[in-house]
Write a structure and sequence with these properties.
The protein has about 300 residues and is α+β, with helices and mostly antiparallel strands. Strand 2, helix 3 and strand 3 form a beta-alpha-beta unit. Helix 2 packs parallel to helix 3, helix 4 crosses helix 5 and helix 4 crosses helix 8. The structure holds adenosine-5'-diphosphate and magnesium ion.
Length: about 300
């Protein structure tokens, strides 16, 4: 059997020209470009918690990195480097090869170099840390929303949760297993959006984090939300408002930026929907139905909820 070091060399070590030093020493050495700030984020995927036992390793490699790149997108950062901490029950080379293929294909697409990590035997668990860059002071914080701003959402909501509920629906399952991080959108929103977050735990809950951090309220029209199509409108509503794992961006921007936001969407060929507005007052989200009445909204995902 190949050693731990041989496996790392074979499956994870690739040229890392944008790092001072990549895999192989006690630490990687990284140098941000002049005038840039670093954005650092970690996300962990645990078997039985975030994915089922026996999940396709190539899709897992994609998703483990995608959810991290999504956090950088939500900050407006450009991905540069990543580290991978991997616990594996056994040195299964077929699994590692497929996992690395999924991860490294996405890394290459977004110019992200894998510069280090840790590999150990244990219950399957994948933790990635990503490092991105952005011009100093231009990060898209959750705390920047102001009364009068518009609320926007990219792509479509609810697809991943529909895929979880009905794995037979291939298009919905693809949203769950192969999310597309909205990196280019996040970069373009620097200097345009006032606040941003990625929709990982459900639209209502994640927009709620912006409202809390900004000390503002919001009114959203359910009709305006971009929805993954489904005939069961009750299931669809639950998934659109409270379903996790979509990794779209929800963001706010001043009304004066409407044309700028529309131009960004057109340039990226990514639908951007204006779904509501920010108001003064409590950090309260009101979702209004077609009749103008407030809809009941379930909480999104919470690992430690009773
Ligand atoms: P140490 O014992 O000093 O922590 P390791 O033996 O854990 O070093 O790792 C050797 C090298 O391989 C280090 O540069 C580390 O960053 C890298 N590495 C280990 N596991 C991974 C992995 N899963 N992906 C990428 N790099 C890894
Ligand atoms: Mg180590």
């Amino acid at each position: 059997l190949p050693s731990e070091f041989e496996l790392i060399r074979r499956y994870f070590q690739r040229p890392t020209p944008s790092a001072v030093l990549g895999i192989g020493d006690d630490a990687a050495l990284l140098r941000p470009a002049a005038g840039m700030e670093l954005a650092v984020s970690t996300d962990m995927l645990v078997e039985g918690r975030h994915f089922r036992a026996g999940a396709d390793p190539e899709a897992l490699g994609h998703k483990a990195l995608a959810v991290n790149l999504s956090d950088l997108a939500a900050m407006g950062a450009t991905p540069r480097w990543a580290t991978l901490a991997l616990a594996l029950p056994a040195a299964n080379e077929h699994w590692m090869a497929a996992f690395a293929r999924g991860l490294l294909a996405l890394a290459q697409r977004f110019g992200t170099e894998l510069v280090g990590g840790d590999t150990t035997r244990g219950p399957l668990c994948i933790s990635i840390t990503v490092v991105g860059e952005l011009p100093a002071g231009q990060g898209l914080l959750r705390s920047g929303a102001r009364p009068g701003d518009d609320v926007w959402v990219s792509g479509e909501l609810g697809g991943a949760a529909i895929g979880l509920a009905e794995p037979g629906l291939a298009a919905a399952a693809a949203r769950l297993d192969r999310p597309e991080p909205r990196v280019a959108l996040g970069e373009k929103l620097r200097g345009v959006a006032s606040a941003a977050i990625d929709v990982s735990d459900g639209f209502a809950q994640d927009l709620g984090h912006i409202l809390e951090a900004s000390g503002v309220g919001a009114i959203v029209r359910y009709e305006s939300l971009p929805k993954f199509p489904h005939a069961d409108t009750k299931l669809q509503r639950r998934c659109v408002l409270s379903g996790g794992d979509d990794y779209e961006l929800a963001f706010t921007a001043p009304q004066a930026k409407r044309d700028a936001v529309a131009a960004i969407g057109a340039g990226l060929k990514l639908p951007l929907a204006r779904v509501g507005s920010i108001g003064k007052g409590n950090p309260d989200l009101a979702v209004l139905g077609a009749n103008g009445k407030r809809l009941k909204v379930e909480r999104g995902f919470d690992h430690f909820a009773a």
